[in-house]
């Protein structure tokens, strides 16, 4: 079963730099906007399917600099469930041999990559007044934890808003910039071949000019066929990825990702935290993730998107069934920290149970560093009011569940002595 989310529209001012012919030192001022006319929109496909079953845990081959941490949860979580309920589980510490290049003068994000407490992030649609920051703060007051990550979506050709990023950071939150490619005119292969280098440089220069941590995620849910940049696989030919000509391949994805990463590094934009995010594999169980993996040196965090969908359709509906199979597959080729960059729960009688189950799941996995709740009211097929404040009961349940785990921290002061 598949559901495709309609486009979200969230305009950001186009604040981009003039393209650079070769790597140059970071600019002192915000770059000027280019003449690009691409539209700015946003969205994310959500799909659920029957439970694909658990894959057995195996010793994964460690990437360079990866922490020696296995997938927690499952049998281990069951054995420690009562203890974990009484004592918060903190995330894995940064490995002693961890290294990551940081350009001179750029904000050093290393201390943020292995947070001891959970990230509590949010995406809010601009349909209820205020700003992304004011809406996030208002939600924080209701649930008892101020969101420390705020997401936005921008389509290819759109700008990176330096003022937005700096304002989010001043608020005590990490900006999360989701870059989409909602067009058939530009392919992943084009990007990999260097035909979009000017735009990539402009983004890199703007992010470097902001000089605050930015969680940067291009081409999310690449293992699905509902996006133009996705993988067609063996599914319906009328899906967006299957209409792409030529169709995207895992090699195209890796080539595009590496080229972007290399340009960002050359431009000194090492304040970008690279988030590689897949949709949970239950939606497309025949599509393996490893062929899309660009390598440890090109990724900071692994993202796994998943939703608690309509219970009437009897799709997978627990943390262990939605997320764990993907965790197990990912752990076969990397030990990078895991972020859940999109999650929500269907409205109805099961909502409170879903919230409890999800937050308890995040809390018991030490290599899952947090989540971003998709806090928007949607209308359409397989859509619902995903907002936490759908009901006061949901708010109360969310607030009580957050108290049971090591949730929330100030990104400007992320170090917690002894993990507390």
What is the CATH level 1 assignment?
A: Alpha Beta
Order of helices and strands: HHEHEHEHHEHHEEHHEHEH
- CATH H-level superfamily: Glycosidases
Strand content: 5-15%
Helix residue percentage: 25-40%
Please state the oligomeric state of the protein chains shown: single chain
CATH topology: TIM Barrel
Q: Helices and strands: which structural class?
A: alpha/beta
Principal-axes geometry comes out as globular
Mean pLDDT: 83
Taking the sheet with the most strands, its summary is: 8 strands, parallel, barrel
Number of E strands: 8
Strand order of the largest sheet: 1-2-3-4-5-6-7-8
Spatial gap, N to C terminus: 42 Å
**Computed CA radius of gyration, to the nearest angstrom:** 20 Å
Residue windows where pLDDT falls under 50 for at least 5 positions? 1-69
Number of discrete helical segments: 12
In short:
The chain has 420 residues and is of the alpha/beta class. The protein is built from twelve helices and eight strands. The protein has a single domain (75-419), classed as Glycosidases (TIM Barrel, Alpha-Beta Barrel), CATH 3.20.20.
Q: Which helices and strands occur, and which strands form pairs?
A:
Layout: H1 75-79, H2 81-86, E1 119-124, H3 132-143, E2 149-155, H4 162-170, E3 174-180, H5 188-192, H6 197-210, E4 214-218, H7 240-243, H8 250-266, E5 272-279, E6 301-305, H9 319-322, H10 324-330, E7 338-343, H11 351-364, E8 368-375, H12 392-402
Parallel strand pairs: 1-2, 1-8, 2-3, 3-4, 4-5, 5-6, 6-7, 7-8
Family: Belongs to the glycosyl hydrolase 26 family.
Active site: 221 (proton donor), 342 (nucleophile)
Organism: Actinocorallia longicatena
